Amino acid sequence: MEAVLAITVGIFFAVGIYLILSKHIIRILLGVTIFGNAVNLTIFTAGRVVREVPPIIPVELDVPASITANPLPQALILTAIVISFSFFAFLLVLAFRAYQELGTDDTDGMRVAEPEREELPPLGY
Fold first, then answer.
1. Residue 105, by phi and psi: left (phi above 0), alpha (psi -120 to 50) or beta?
2. 3-state class (DSSP) for residue 124
3. CA-to-CA distance for 62 and 40, rounded, in angstroms?
4. C-alpha–C-alpha distance, residues 96 and 106, integer Å
């Protein structure tokens, strides 16, 4: 099972990086989201995927009687999902406002600081 998840995580990372390198804002946002999901799957895979018993210690014992599931990766992933969703919503609103103001979602067309009719600044000194 870990091998299948490792291949899936690798594909998610590749697709996320490919989309982040795009020139369109929507593709960049989707790439950031897929990249975040790849990170979440990596943390989930690192926390053991096999079925384990819940980490509940009986009253008469000081330590668990058998191997238990690790709750830390699950808690980290739940927190990361909430943060990544709010980050995606913020970036989506920011991209929409930029599209409303500039009329394009192409990053080359969003170069407001460099007007089209003027010559480019020097590349080196």
1. alpha
2. coil
3. 32
4. 12
Q: Cβ atoms within 10 A of the Cβ of 60, count?
A: 6
- The whole-angstrom separation of Cα 99 and Cα 116 is 18
pLDDT tens readout for residues 67-123: 777 778 888 899 999 999 999 999 999 999 989 988 888 888 887 766 667 777 777
pTM for this entry? 0.75
What does the alpha-carbon distance between residue 38 and residue 7 come to, in Å, rounded to a whole number?
Answer: 11
* Alpha-helical regions (H) of 1-125: 2-20, 25-46, 71-102
Determine the Cα–Cα distance for residues 20 and 26; give it in Å rounded to an integer: 9
